[in-house]
Amino acid sequence: MTIDRRGLLKSIGAAGAASAVATTAHAETGAVAFRHGVASGDPSTTAAIFWTRVTPADASSAAIPVVLEVASDAAFAHMVRRSTGLSADPARDFTVKHDLDGQGLKPGTEYFYRFIAAGVTSPVGRVKTLPEGATPDAALAVVSCQLYPGGLFNAYDAIARLDRLDAVIHLGDYIYEYGAEADDYGMNAGAALNRIPEPAHEIVTLADYRQRHAQYKTDPDLQAAHARAAFICVWDDHEVANDIWNTGAENHQPATEGDFNARKAAALRAWFEWMPIREPVPGKMAEAIQRTFHFGDLASLMMVETRLQGRQQQLTYAADITMKPGPDGKPVPDAAAFEAKRNAPERDLLGDAQRDWLGRELAASKAAGRPWQMLGNQVVMARVAGPNIAAMATPEQISGMLGGLPPSIRAQVEGSIALFAQGLPFNLDSWDGYPAGRERLYQTFKTAGVQPIVLAGDSHSFWVNDLADNAGERVAVEFGTSSISSPSPQDAIGDFPLGMALDIANKEVLFCDQSSKGYILLTLTPTEARADLVGVSTIVAKPYEAKVVTRWSVAKTDAGLGPTNRI
């Protein structure tokens, strides 16, 4: 974020938290336990990945034999598959991942599954295979950014209770790397809720990343969502470290945290162990997790990777903007010089190889007659200039807003006000930091003859955006999901209506909500895409209420996308 997360957001607490809520852990009985639930992922028409973690009573245990059962009913009276010979191996942190690729599952069918080890049976999960052929509709939950100390995962409880759900699309920031010091990210809320990161230090080693993944998967609401439907996942930055790029990260200091590539390798190994995703393809690098899912003849979902393959280092205002004398002789940001740097033609997020792959996938989906192409993308793609607050509020109002902020936050906000008055972007870690790469992507859309639905996470805010290229031609519609529990800048700046200000300041932004936490329920039919932006009333207590904050739709016509309308 332009207002730095590490500096600004780590200080945001859960002011007014009513009571402390501790994580509920499963009691361990017998030789083993299934403390981390079950999960499925990467569904196809005849297969899916099935995942669990077996907790041995003895941490020094050898590999534990495991059985997977898949049935067409919750009582397991009608068994479809029984896979033996599986193993929870200490070399993989006792996680189990099994791919039923092509082994007897039917398209568009819901199944129930469970694991058995040492006479102990796991919780039961549900999974639906992808449809084949004529598909009247699809219902998908879109999620992102779940900070364990940041608040309760109430949105996952709401997702688990949905009557209709085909899959969950997770756009990254499944875990966060920060520690449990009082000033670490989210710890004001974490201390109030008794949600303390484990281990208590910033995670760097393989053992650290494994322990953090394990803690997240003890959350009962997250377990319930995983048990409800298959997850289709990509990582963002915090699965490794904040604001990562292909050769480094803002939150990695080699002098104290060692070799970056070693840290990244440890993080990715733990991620593949603990997430219900297919293993890396032999002969390809582990970072290449881009892949496609087809929902019958209705839609194709292309999940892209925007962090570890093609992304160059982010620009920052602190390091990359220079000052020049203003009209009154006082220094002001040299916006023109900065914009020349930001618009350098080599700046990119995807890289040529991934963009070429995406172009082929989009074109193939179009040729197959599917009306919808969706892009599972980590960061906001729209052009979003920071709001010129000086033109929206009186000096007295601005002074009042700043006066209520902690000194460190006040300095950041004051700096942002000066930058945004020059028309500069709100978030340089998003596609706005890579405009040349974005324009190349838009050309890829055009060459493939599609106007896709772009899905975005990372921002901790809800967005509805109409995307346009440099010539002003509409190329796509974007739905950005808010976070499950991670804070947004709005949480730090009081009553100033940041989302409304971003809407007013930007032609591409149709709606922005910087306050609500929740998820998007995306429903597709051959002629309409409907996005319900669902917010939860609180992330600091139970019970809570889930309700639609706003609902938008876009029609699919022979000429392309229709208008994006609030309904």
Automatic annotation (TrEMBL):
- Annotated signal sequence is 1-27
Which residue numbers delimit the PhoD-like phosphatase metallophosphatase domain?
140-533
What's this protein's name?
Answer: Alkaline phosphatase D family protein
Which organism is this entry from?
Brevundimonas goettingensis
Q: Which UniProt keywords apply?
A: Signal
Organism domain of life: Bacteria
Q: InterPro entries, alphabetically?
A: Metallo-depent_PP-like, PhoD-like_MPP, PhoD-like_sf, PhoD_N, Phospholipid_Metab_Enz, TAT_signal
By its UniProt entry, which PROSITE patterns does this protein fall under? TAT
Which Gene3D superfamilies is this protein grouped with?
A: PhoD-like phosphatase, Purple acid phosphatase-like, N-terminal
